[in-house]
Design goal:
Blueprint lengths: L11 H4 L1 E10 L3 H19 L1 E7 L4 H7 L5 H9 L2 E6 L16 H10 L3 E7 L19 E7 L11 E4 L5 E4 L6 H16 L4 E6 L5 H14 L6 E6 H10 L6 E4 L1 H14 L7 E9 L4 E7 L16 H13 L4 H16 L2 E2 L15 E2 L2 H13 L1
Helix pairs in contact: 2-10, 2-11, 2-12, 4-5, 6-7, 8-9, 10-11, 11-12
Length: 386
């Protein structure tokens, strides 16, 4: 759905539109980067004639400290009732006891399962202004535009049994179960093909089929689905080969689709290409739609970074770009989403950088302006208002 009216204008119907968004700041720098995204979203709303009803939830480590659990059933319901969910980060050393029965990450699993969010979408691009911040050679970064589609609700993270055990002779052991059904694979692979049709029409299915039975099932199902998408190229890659290629020639990928664990690892590896984990957004979606678009949860791919929490040092761009994805996918505000993305690009053109985006060589940073979390959000909001 494209907003009515010319750029910067809104129809009378849109002027009164209010979107309900559940806000989960979480832990560490999470509340700071979410606050930055809220500032930018409100600037976009003022320009394009819509507003927000925010519902703040205490989830993650702060949920454990407040309620004794990472997330309550009523929090999941609040997220279900919202038009979309915006999340910062959860977890941190304070809650890292490996023997703990309650952990912040349980909130993420509860949200994915409770909201039916089976697909995590992570676009990997390189802003031209940040090529100097990437560890890859500049000639390897031309044309990088990749989308990683990660399955979220099955695999090792959810398989049962998953527990510590003891061998007959008293030695400690542990077991995790890797489990996938045909239906779980089919829905995520079909989504990847649909995404590829709107891009460069190439899907890379990543697995470990030379070792794992689940991976061989992934290959079979992917081949079956490919018959419905003859206009899209399909290739299979072992995960170690895919990891190496991401580091050597990332522009060779269009859409990568893979299981939960491999997707988790590969998407974090790919984030380094962009120069910082703080740059990249993500969306977790399912099949459910609302009056405005597809229901989803949006978050940056970085962690809670507790070492810099409360110091106004965190990069909010991944969260701000996640908010743009939310506007486009869940709220139907395509023009406002584009305005945010253009404002981010303009600010980078203007030389504004958070600490993580400074180039490796100090001499290259002479013409740059070092800013904190709040200032980065402010200058982006100012450009949207123009």
């Amino acid at each position: 759905m494209t907003p009515a009216g010319a750029a910067g204008e809104a129809s009378a119907g849109e002027a009164s539109r209010t979107y309900r968004v559940a806000l989960i700041g979480g832990d560490g720098v999470g509340p700071e980067v979410v606050a930055g995204a809220v500032h930018v979203l409100e600037a976009a709303g003022r320009r394009f004639g819509f507003g927000f009803e925010w519902r703040e939830l205490l989830v993650g480590g702060i949920g454990i400290d407040t309620y004794g659990v990472a997330i309550r059933p009523e929090d999941v319901e609040a997220c279900r009732d919202a038009d979309a969910v915006l999340l910062g980060a959860v977890g941190g050393p304070k809650w890292d006891d490996p023997d703990a029965t309650v952990r912040p990450e349980q909130a993420l699993f509860a949200l994915r399962g409770g909201l039916g969010l089976f697909a995590n979408l992570r676009p990997i691009t390189v802003a031209p202004q940040l090529i100097a911040a990437s560890p890859l050679k500049p000639e390897l970064l031309a044309g990088v535009d990749c989308l990683i589609v990660r399955e979220l609700t099955s695999g090792l993270y959810f398989g049962k049994p998953s527990e510590p055990r003891t061998t007959p002779d008293g030695e400690r052991a542990a077991i995790d179960t890797l489990w996938y059904t045909e239906g779980e694979i089919r829905r995520i692979v079909a989504l990847a093909f649909e995404m590829a049709r709107g891009r460069r029409r190439k899907v890379t299915q990543v697995d470990k089929a030379n070792v794992l039975a689940t991976s061989r099932l992934w290959r079979k199902v992917a081949e079956e689905i490919h018959a419905d998408f003859p206009d899209v190229e399909l290739e299979h890659r072992l995960v170690d080969s895919a990891a190496m290629t991401l580091a050597k020639w990332p522009a060779g990928f269009d859409v990568l689709v893979t299981e939960n664990l491999f997707g988790d690892i590969l998407s974090d590896e790919a984030a380094v290409i962009a120069g910082s984990l703080g740059m990249l957004p993500s969306a977790s979606i399912g099949t459910r739609t609302t009056a405005h678009g597809r229901h989803g949860l949006y978050e940056p791919i970085h962690g809670s970074a507790p070492d810099i929490a409360g110091q106004d040092l965190a990069n909010p761009l991944g969260t701000i770009l996640s908010a743009a994805m939310m506007l486009r996918w869940s709220l139907g505000q395509h023009e406002a989403a584009a305005a945010i993305e253009q404002a981010v690009s303009s600010v980078l053109d203007g030389g504004y950088r958070t600490r993580d985006l400074l180039p490796a060589h100090p001499s290259d940073a002479v013409a740059l302006t070092l800013v904190g979390t709040r200032e980065m959000a402010r200058v982006i909001g100012d450009r949207i208002a123009i």
